[in-house]
Amino acid sequence: MSKVILGGGLGGLSAAYYLKKFSPNQAVTLIESSSRTGGWIKSSVQENGAIFEQGPRTIRPRGDAGANTLQLIEELNLSDQIVPITSGHPAAKNRLIYANGSLHLLPSSLTGLFRKQEPFSKPLILHLLNDLKARRKEVKDESIYDFIGRRFGSEVADYLISPLICGICAGNAKEISVKFLMKQLFEYEQKHGSVSKGLLTSLFAKSKRPTVLCETALRARSEKWNIYSFKNGCETLPIALRNNIVSNGVNIKFNTECTEIITDKGQVILNLFNNETIKCDHLVGAIPANVLGRLLQKQHPELAQCLKKLTKNVSVAVVNLLFKENFIKNPAFGLLVVPKEQLPVLGVIYDSCCFPVENCGTVLTVMMGGYWFEEHFGTNPQENVLLDVAVKHVKRILNCDHDPFNYKVNILKQCLPQYVVGHDENLDLINGYIRTHKLPISLCGASYYGVGINDVILSAKNAVKDL
Ligand SMILES: Cc1cc2nc3c(=O)[nH]c(=O)nc-3n(C[C@H](O)[C@H](O)[C@H](O)COP(=O)(O)OP(=O)(O)OC[C@H]3O[C@@H](n4cnc5c(N)ncnc54)[C@H](O)[C@@H]3O)c2cc1C
Ligand SMILES: C=Cc1c2[nH]c(c1C)Cc1[nH]c(c(CCC(=O)O)c1C)Cc1[nH]c(c(C)c1CCC(=O)O)Cc1[nH]c(c(C)c1C=C)C2
Q: The Amine oxidase domain covers which part of the protein (predicted)?
């Protein structure tokens, strides 16, 4: 009998790829509710060559997960499509925050830490040294805002961490688990009493066995890539994955929504919207955890409850803007708005600084809403309202008066999972339930082990490696 993968986003496509890589003769069906694969990853090339990214735009090359993605890219013959941003580039060095009504550059070097820079009241190094004095608090988990506030002070929590959380999961740092971004630092405090002591101890600890790197990862290291994308945008990756799995015999069923999942003696039965059913001996769930919870509700209410609790997703309005004029005075990756400003805008990406296209003017992407989406826009905002808000705030924040000649507005409903306090514990309950009840189900995708492209690909590889 076959394996079924539910969901044709990056997680589902990667799961299908690795299933076929590890056991080429395995029959695999992928079920996708929409008419395309790729999920939130969508790039559209404009007439003048500019790329409008609706979802992700950059990938990190570092770490084991980064190396794994580069290996996948190499296996898909995409290495020559990569466009890297190297460490000396302004888009790698310069990240801005908008606080107290103006833009500020965040320190990007060691010397920057010793300088007093607005909006901080003293050099950042003094905030960081606060960690040496702060007492350990024994906790299982806490919000990243509380952890940073305790160890480094409220200015670091407000001006550094809160916007960073917006720039990664569009979330509220006061609710997101410290383990989402800073598990290691949190564990240093719990084990050694302070982050600094933990850091020092780890310097003398035995280093782990180095990962064997593929050619592209070695190139990334020697050329000092900071982040990268592809010539035709991030969608290059899911398109290549789809083509690869189709040519390896994976059957993709488009426009096919699963409405219920039933497990029965080592089998999984999927009820589909059109009253059809599909049976398989193993299901890989690559859809958001709360949606999966709904599908399992009738037969496994306890598991469904944990899955629904795991991720409260937030919505983001993504507005791509194309201007004739070149008006960016300080080239950078972009800017993040400090949540204390209470603006509808989370951040602005300077696409034309990151990946310049000749004679293209200025390309910006404005991301809005997130955790505060409904507060600012209600449940069903009109696209023209979102466009007006985006343009008005770009003019105000960047202090300019240009109007875009081309734009695209997309509302990404419930697109980003929020790893709230207790996420890890809840995940243990979910895995425990699946193990104890011997359910032939594995999980992957952005709801579980990280929201970045690298995390999603690695979660898919891990989900299928023992099947
Ligand atoms: C605005 C934004 C910006 C981002 N920027 C970056 C970035 O710069 N760098 C980075 O690394 N990551 C970034 N990410 C994160 C990354 O894009 C996502 O985490 C990743 O694409 C999620 O993939 P997925 O397969 O887990 O989920 P999805 O993309 O949500 O895929 C799930 C699929 O399942 C389908 N589905 C759902 N329910 C059903 C059902 N009942 N039956 C059948 N099919 C179903 C959906 O249609 C969808 O195609 C960004 C994400 C967003 C939203
Ligand atoms: C303003 C909103 C958002 C911006 N990007 C995202 C949102 C919600 C989504 C996002 N960005 C990144 C990731 C992946 C994280 C990972 O684990 O790989 C996701 C889901 C990448 C990223 N963006 C910023 C940082 C610091 C990172 C981590 C990797 C890196 O160092 O590049 C900061 C940032 N995001 C946005 C802006 C405007 C910005 C900084 C100025 C937009």
A: 10-466
